[in-house]
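Sat 14:20. Reprocessing the chain from the morning session after the first attempt stalled halfway. Input below, unchanged.
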Amino acid sequence: MIILFSSSLGLMVDNYKKRQIKYIDDLIYIGERISLMLSSTTPETEEIFHQLMNDERLRKFDFDLNVENIPLSTEDYNRIKDFFAALGRYDVDCQLRYINEFIGYYKMLKQQYQEYYASHHKLYIAFGVLSGMVISIFLI
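Finished this time. Tokens:
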């Protein structure tokens, strides 16, 4: 029972790391969609959010930006909040530059997370199983 519990903890950490990568991927997609909309039709901010909220790929994305639903650091949470708050405040050229910086940052962050995950994801599960075995041996 202890081994199963500790193994499930390893799987939870593994899934959390996958969720971080997926969340960053969604942020990049949002930035690219907004950039495309601003480059082609220059819609109002409300229309941008309406289209994003109705996008099938983003149906599980929390546009309310509740901190407990964002699997990233506080610094990244604030960066995301600032990004959404800045939409519609500047002229199109400034917004496009800001969006491109946002996309570039999260592409870099996604690459770092993917490299870290690729080199560590098996360790989470192995550590969970091994720690469960060690605890079980000590209890026997």
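Helices lie at 2-40, 45-53, 74-86, 92-139.
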